[in-house]
Each structure stands twice: as structure tokens, then as C-alpha cells.
């Protein structure tokens, strides 16, 4: 029996579940990203009560994007950005499918 290089995982981001097909070798990156996003989401939800789930997710995305831009300015992040672009494409495909 052969193990596929691609498989489906379910991520929970800001209380919302969705499934994505990923490369088996990338699973830990996705799990770490899920944890980081949820930690930042919780920070915003606790710091700014009464906002919408979308607002908390957007605040989280903005913070992470600014961190990436700052890091890109301070050094080469081309491999990291390529990985992130791949993840974004995977998530977009999952949301459309």
C-alpha cells in the first residue's frame, strides 16, 4: 500500500473549520500556522470584544502580513513567501471547492 504525498487535513481558524489538501511534508507548517493564527485571533478577540469574527480574522491577517513585510525588508524571505503563496492557493482552492 502506497502513502499519497497529498492528503486532506481540517484546520480550525477563528472557530471556523475547513479542509485543505496539502503535501504530507507540509503538515507541521500548517499546524504551526493554525496555532499562531488562533493565538493572535484570541488576542484580538479578548482585546477588542464585540467585533465580528471577520474583523478578528482580518486584524490577525494584517498583523501577520506586516510581520512578513518587515522580515522581507530585513532579509531574504523568497522561500518563505513562496511557501506562503502556495498555502494561500491551497486555502483558496479549498474555499472554492
Short description:
The protein is an alpha+beta fold and 97 residues long. The chain is built from 3 helices and 2 strands.
- Structural class from helices and strands? alpha+beta
Q: How many extended strands?
A: 2
Q: What's the total helix number?
A: 3
- For the record, give the distance between the C-alpha atoms at the N and C termini, rounded to a whole number: 28 Å
Radius of gyration: 15 Å
Portion in beta strands? 15-25%
Strand order of the largest sheet: 1-2
Largest sheet: 2 strands, antiparallel
Q: Based on CA inertia axes, which overall geometry fits?
A: globular
Average pLDDT over all residues: 87
Low-confidence segments: none
Percent in helix: 55-70%
> How would you spell out the order of helices and strands?
EEHHH
Describe the structure.
- Helix 1 (27-47) crosses helix 2 (53-74).
- A hairpin with a 2-residue loop joins strand 1 and strand 2 (16-23).
- The protein has a two-stranded antiparallel sheet.
- It has 3 helices and 2 strands.
- The chain is an alpha+beta fold and 97 residues long.
- The chain has helices at residues 27-47, 53-74, 78-96; strands at 6-13, 16-23.
- Helix content is 64%, strand content 16%.
- It is globular and about 50 Å long.
- The model has no long low-confidence stretch (mean pLDDT 87).
Secondary structure topology:
Layout lengths: L5 E8 L2 E8 L3 H21 L5 H22 L3 H19 L1
Antiparallel strand pairs: 1-2
Annotation keywords:
97 residues, alpha+beta, 64% helix
Amino acid at each position: 500500500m502506497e502513502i499519497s504525498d497529498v492528503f486532506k487535513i481540517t484546520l480550525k481558524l477563528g472557530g471556523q473549520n475547513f479542509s485543505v489538501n496539502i503535501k504530507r511534508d507540509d503538515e507541521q507548517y500548517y499546524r504551526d500556522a493554525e496555532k499562531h493564527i488562533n493565538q493572535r485571533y484570541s488576542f484580538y478577540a479578548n482585546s477588542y470584544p464585540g467585533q465580528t469574527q471577520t474583523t478578528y480574522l482580518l486584524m490577525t491577517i494584517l498583523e501577520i502580513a506586516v510581520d512578513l513585510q518587515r522580515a522581507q525588508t530585513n532579509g531574504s524571505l523568497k522561500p518563505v513567501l513562496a511557501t506562503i503563496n502556495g498555502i494561500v492557493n491551497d486555502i483558496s482552492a479549498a474555499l472554492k471547492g
